[in-house]
Amino acid sequence: MERVASLIAAATVLFPFNSFLLAQPKLLPSPTGKVPLTEVRICDKQPKWSPDGKQIAFLSNRVKLDERYFELYLMSPGGTNLQTVHMPPNTIDIRSFCWSPDGEHIAFVGRQGVEKKYIKNVDIFVINTHGTGLRNFTNKSDLSYDQLQWSPDNSKIAFVRVENKRSSKKEIWILGTNGEFWYKLVDGTNPIWSPNSKQLLFFQRISPLVGGAGFVQIDIDGKNQQMFKMINRYKNGRYDFGSPGNVYWSSDGSKIFADVGADWIVIRSTKSNENWKLVTDVSKHEVIGSDRLRPRRRSRSRKEAVKRRRELIKRRKELEERYRYGLRSVLSPTGKDIVFIANGDIWKVDATSCYDFGWGRNIVKRPFRGHNLTNSKEKEEASPRWSPHGKKIVYVRDYEIWVMNADGSEQTQLTFERTRAIAKAKGQQAEAKAARERALKEVVREK
To answer: Nearest 5 degrees, angle CA 186-CA 261-CA 377?
Structure first.
């Protein structure tokens, strides 16, 4: 073997072309290829003021950069004193949360054992704002919980329970904050407490074909149910009641406000049989039956029919995407203004003025009312929340937390983790491009 190796070495010296034949080509980057930008997965969401307005709580996945793992953070309204609400060693992923009225506790829906590939349990927890005293109130398998609402008198929590992931049946349950009791109240979603903590308002859909959908007011003992029938829209060739959006009471409990899909904000009295009245029409168009897939008249040619059908399908998809998220409107603590999301911006409208309109196909077109507070063009806003005193609004812009005055002035960024990560990714991209150019220049120089 040694003799063979020496002969190969001698041959390489005598015949240099052999080394050329045996050498492997060096792989260089393509001069016309795109240098990818590292994906940034940091997301801050669901900002909520503490009852005294001294803190803002929000969820973020900035630690593990995983969509399945969100932690709870607290900070001051100025963005300082950022701290994590530390959980026990057993990992918990937080989906949604709410403050207690006294500001001492936070209730949240979380999952234990996030490190596992398959996560089955979703439970309701309550923890002190200092990160101590964690309690699991449900501890049940194969169940799902959502839409936590803490009663104003601090004694109960309303929530929605789903029996399993494949079930479409949703139930509203009441849980005592002392852990002594819980019970099913009624079938429905989107529960909200009355100011006196004696009633709940929730969305219930019995049968859209017979008009059995709307918001229902009920006492917490299950008595005195009163349905406030929703405004109907003629969509896709049938009457539709829209996806249940936000619903909320006025501070004195005499009126309720609600979103209807992504089109209207409506108001009505809880003490009379009057119809809903319109606060603003965000759709800017009449509600008509033109979104049906089947044309009203027979087209002159097959080509025209196919073209029309494609246009209608595209229109329907746009409407479905629009109705999916709704307006997410929120009433100010003073009851005078409403903020909502439209076209990616945050708008404000006067909540004290409203007007009548018809029903079904006879709905009267009204002018859009609202003032754009952000007008951020390519930026996307979400989750606006009024401060307890009604002077500031916290919101999400491009997955980071911002705050502004109630008139839209002094828009201030509070969290910067995503901004820093994007800047770092762009810097790495620029370095990769520079390294590619240097490598190509060296090859040209060698030749």
So the answer is: 135
What is the reported pLDDT for 104?
92
Task: Pick the closest to residue 412 from 398, 423, 401 (CA basis).
Answer: 401
How many Cα atoms within 13 Å fall on the side-chain side of residue 395? 30
- Print the domain residue range for 329: 41-446
Task: Evaluate whether 72 touches 108 at the Cβ level (below 8 Å).
Answer: yes
Name the token pair of 231: 């405004």
Per-residue model confidence (pLDDT) at position 242 = 53
* Residue 214, domain member (yes or no): yes
Once rounded to an integer, what is the mean pLDDT over residues 379-401?
92
Instruction: Report the domain count for the chain.
Output: 1
Q: Is 284 left (phi over 0), alpha (psi -120 to 50) or beta?
A: left
The answer to the question of residue 9 being in a domain is no
Coil, strand or helix at 14:
helix
Which of helix, strand or coil describes residue 285? coil
- Nearest residue to 63 (alpha-carbon basis) of 93, 88, 34, 26: 93
In a domain, residue 15? The reply is no
CATH number at residue 237: 2.120.10.30
Q: Report yes or no on 22 lying in a domain.
A: no
